[in-house]
Each structure stands twice: as C-alpha cells, then as structure tokens.
C-alpha cells in the first residue's frame, strides 16, 4: 500500500530542498527535546543525495546546526577509514569536508579500526559506543535515533540487513556483524532491525530507475512486507517517510 509519507519528485533538484526541510524539522524536534541531534547514516547513493540537501544554500531557509549533530553509521564496512569502500570516507568526502567552517563540526562516531580482523568484536565495540551515548544515565532496551537516513537496495536490503538473513531475527543486540554480505565487501557491521524500527524518524531515499522493481514489490505485494525495507516500513508506519524520484516509482500502483 501507499506509505503515509511518500514524497515523490521529478528529480534531485526538487527532492533535495524537500529533504532539507524534513531534516531541519527533525533537527528542531531533537534540539527541543535534548539539545543534540542524533542521526544514523547509510552508505551507497545516500551521502551524495544528502550532500545536495544539506550543502546547497539554494535549498532554502533554516540553519543546519552541525555542532549539535552526532553522526552514527547505520552500517559500515570493516575496512580502513580511508578505504574506497568505507562509508565513513564517503560521508567525509561528500559532506563533512564541505561543511563551511563557521557552521561548526558534527561529532562523528566511526568504527574502531583496531578491530578490522574481528568484525564481531567491532560490532560489540560499536554497540558499547551506542550504549555510552544512548544509555548513559538509564538502561534502555533500544537506542532511539532522532533520525535514520536509509537507502533501499535493489533486493530490498537496508543497512546491511539482507533479505532472508538470520540477523533479521535478532531481538536484543543493537549492532550486528556480517562476514558474508551478498553485496561486497563481505565484512560489515549493521544496526539491528529493532534499532532501525525504533527510530523517532526514519527516511528512506530511493532514486533512479534501478529501484522501480523493488519499489513495486515493497508497495504492491505482500511478500515485499517481509523484505528488510518492508519490515521497517510496516513496523514504523507514520514515523517513516520515503523520498523518491519518479523513475524509482514508475509503474508502482499503490493498491
Ligand atoms: C552499504 C549501504 C547500503 C545502502 C543500500 C542502498 O553500506 O552498503 O549502507 O545499506 O544503503 O545498499 O544503496 P544504494 O542507495 O546505492 O542503492
């Protein structure tokens, strides 16, 4: 079915300002609530689209208060931070390095490369970092990100949660490791499904004709609801927004 918050645009030129407004709104609620803005980012095509939304002054009013941002990785590849497969490197190159100095610097929680040889330990350490941030005062069952910005792969994966993976059944851990990712590189860490579903706001960004089959499956079929993107979409309901372009939803009928 048609998700409650579907924002469809001709292309990136009109998607970017709308995504910026959405992020500013999420930032405002977060700062009103607890004076920081905790955001989880994916890799793939997302950092480039996000850069368009954040960095282009033409995109409208409102100040991005980067110094209040705490950036986490929704998933990350177990590679050095300057490696071409690193999501950190991508976010740094596309966004962090381009933020005008006077706007301040976000706090960025990257993986600890000490654990490159032991991806489970890397996941445990990243989880410890999340515990220190999200459960510093009280014990909490799940961390609550103010905003998760996610992609949706052509097979319906999101973060590094792939269709049919046993990781989808994990209920307690916050961060999981994967050693045989179907999408290279094989070793990764990822937020668990319940953590993604628990976000205060969750945005999927899917652009380009390469997404139209998976969009059809997620929105037009029962089976699509069982794919990782579908599982987040149906659990989080009106907390989820989709930012798509017309090629990505071409032929989707939203029954
Ligand atoms: C990764 C990404 C991944 C991505 C999807 C969609 O590290 O592989 O975080 O989860 O978001 O694969 O990627 P595209 O947006 O490039 O299709």
UniProtKB/TrEMBL annotation:
It comes from the Eukaryota. Keywords: Hydrolase. PANTHER family: 6-PHOSPHOGLUCONOLACTONASE (PTHR11054:SF0). One of its GO terms (biological process) is carbohydrate metabolic process. This is 6-phosphogluconolactonase. GO terms for molecular function: 6-phosphogluconolactonase activity. It catalyses: 6-phospho-D-glucono-1,5-lactone + H2O = 6-phospho-D-gluconate + H(+). Belongs to the glucosamine/galactosamine-6-phosphate isomerase family. 6-phosphogluconolactonase subfamily. Hydrolysis of 6-phosphogluconolactone to 6-phosphogluconate. Gene3D superfamilies: 3.40.50.1360. Residues 13-242 form the Glucosamine/galactosamine-6-phosphate isomerase domain.
């Amino acid at each position: 079915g048609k998700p409650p918050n579907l924002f469809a645009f001709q292309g990136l030129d009109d998607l970017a300002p709308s995504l910026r407004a959405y992020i500013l709104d999420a930032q405002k609620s977060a700062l009103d609530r607890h004076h920081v803005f905790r955001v989880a980012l994916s890799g793939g095509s997302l950092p480039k689209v996000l850069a368009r939304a954040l960095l282009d002054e033409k995109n409208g009013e409102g100040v991005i208060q980067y110094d209040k941002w705490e950036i986490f990785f929704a998933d990350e590849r177990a590679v050095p931070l300057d490696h071409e497969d690193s999501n950190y490197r991508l976010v740094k190159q596309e966004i962090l390095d381009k933020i005008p100095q006077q706007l301040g610097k976000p706090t960025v929680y990257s993986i600890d490369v000490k654990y490159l040889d032991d991806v489970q330990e890397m996941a445990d350490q990243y989880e410890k970092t999340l515990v220190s941030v999200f459960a510093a005062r009280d014990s909490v069952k799940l961390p609550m990100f103010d905003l998760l910005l996610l992609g949706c792969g052509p097979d319906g994966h999101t973060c590094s949660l792939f269709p049919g993976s046993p990781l989808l059944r994990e209920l307690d851990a916050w961060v999981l490791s994967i050693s045989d990712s179907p999408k290279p590189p094989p070793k990764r860490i990822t937020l668990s499904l319940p953590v993604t579903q628990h976000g205060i706001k969750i945005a999927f960004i899917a652009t380009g004709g390469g997404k139209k089959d998976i969009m059809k499956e997620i929105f037009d079929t029962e089976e699509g609801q069982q794919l990782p993107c579908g599982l987040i979409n149906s659990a989080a309901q009106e907390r989820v927004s989709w930012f798509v372009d017309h090629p990505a939803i071409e032929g989707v009928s939203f029954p």
